[in-house]
Amino acid sequence: MNSGIATPPDLQAIALAGETLHLLPSGAALWPATGTLVVADLHLGKSERRARRWGALLPPYDTAETLARLDAVLDATRPTTVICLGDSFDDSAAADALRDDVRLWLARMMAGRRWIWVAGNHDPAPVDVGGTSLDEHRAGALTFRHIAQADADPGEVSGHWHPKLRLPVAGAGAARPAFVADGRRLILPAFGAYTGGLSALDPALSALMAPDAVAVLTGRTMVRVPLAACHSAAASSPGPSSPGRSPFRSPAAAARSR
Ligand SMILES: [Fe+2]
Fold first, then answer.
1. CA of 26 to the centre of ligand 1 (A)
2. Fewer Cβ atoms within 10 A, N terminus or C terminus of the chain?
């Protein structure tokens, strides 16, 4: 049953544990049957945390850019429930340091709907910004958590890895944030600005996904591609620009800091 949620025309539908989720160009996912919108890894306050730790290295516009993109998705889809899959804040101090106008902006977006903050490795403690803070959230056949578990039951929805993928074709351009899904689990790309990413072909992600897994690239023109084909293309054209070679960090380093 559709709960009144609006579904934009440009999306990719996937089946997950008997449910249908719609993957959106922005990197958010819709579960129309329950009126739920899901986003991962907002990392609000990232530039503030970096400035606090290392001095101002990034222009401090990431929080406003991320919230503006999220606001646009909320306007377009009108969900009754929003689930943020952890690392919503770059750390607890960043959550505490949110400016009043940002708190008001968040409060306006949360008004009239259920809003769930799932704990992440960057923001493990409950945050004082309204909504409900949970370690993980179960709804029907689906479980929403920050980091995918290797032995999870079918129907897991998670974030954490910030998957990205560059298509293994000439002229494909830069890597784009990408969903990764295999019918048992779905991993969302990071929604936040300045968040970086890990190749969807990285062994850390391959270890979690079934052989028939697909990646769905975000952006104006979404592209669904079998990960096995990308692995084959990478293996046949090894080199520094190979899509199979992570342009980011080792899985161990990624796991520590995503
Ligand atoms: Fe993250």
1. 16
2. N
Ligand 1 center from residue 21 Cα (angstroms): 22
Q: Is 143 helix (H, G, I), strand (E, B) or coil?
A: strand
Which amino acid, 143?
Answer: T
d(CA 125, CA 128): 10
Residue keyed to tokens 């001095």: 55
How remote is the CA of residue 237 from the centroid of ligand 1, in Å?
30
CA 4 – ligand 1 centroid, Å: 30
For the chain, the domains span: 12-257
What is the four-CA torsion angle of 153, 159, 161, 167, rounded to 10 degrees? Answer: 100
In angstroms, the CA 188 to CA 118 distance is 14
Helix spans in the chain (H): 46-54, 62-77, 92-96, 100-110, 203-206, 227-236, 251-257
Confidence at 241, pLDDT banded by 50, 70, 90: very low
* pLDDT single digits (tens) 96-150: 888 899 999 999 999 999 999 999 999 998 888 999 999 999 999 999 999 999 9
Question: What are the residues whose beta carbons fall under 8 Å from the beta carbon of 12, sequence distance 6 or more?
Answer: 22, 23, 179, 216, 222, 224
* CA contacts within 13 A on the Cβ side of 107: 10
Q: Ligand 1 mean position to 99 CA, how many Å?
A: 21
